[in-house]
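Sample intake sheet
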Amino acid sequence: MIFNIVLGVWITTGIIIGFSLPPAKNLVLPPIMYFHVPMAVAMAVSFLIAAWYGGAWLRTRRVHHDILSYSFAEVGAICGLIATASGSIWARVNWGDYWNWDPQQVGIVATLLTYGALFSLRSATDDDDKQRNLWAVYAIFGAVAAIFWLFIYRHLPGVRLNTAHPSGTLSGSEPIFRFALWFNVAGYVMLLVRLAQLRARLERANQYLKDLSWT
């Protein structure tokens, strides 16, 4: 309960800070960046946590770890969809089009398509143990793919020259902009953790009801 209150105050404060700051250099509609960037970071963090819990399932065979892995991946995908949508709005305002084939746009969409395929593959079998074993491998593979598409692809020779994304506009500018950015990043990462925990709780309840139906 206390954590939920702190989280709500934190997120609200971050929104107020974002809208109260003066415009950042080279940015039109800057407040969206204090939401778009943190959601993209939260997506990457959630996929890494999903991979960690996937590995934990392989080591411990605890169902709880599998549930957390899948829950973090689901919440991460939702964060990615929100980051993509908000980024498209920002691109329309700053570049004139919702889609520009920018390397960062391509990277995040490729990451989401990868996880969409992995979610489908998990549901391809009804055997619980096989499903969990396969998902653990998928989660680890997905994290590796996410690292490539989100952090490596845009720096490849020939690719990085085509980006319209400003470099260091917020993180490399005045301290107040960096504070606002990382304050919001911390808030949305905490939010994704809370949402993943709630999703895992719901999945455990569903699993309990499923087990009851077999008895």
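Comment: Residues 35-213 form one domain. The chain has one domain: 35-213.
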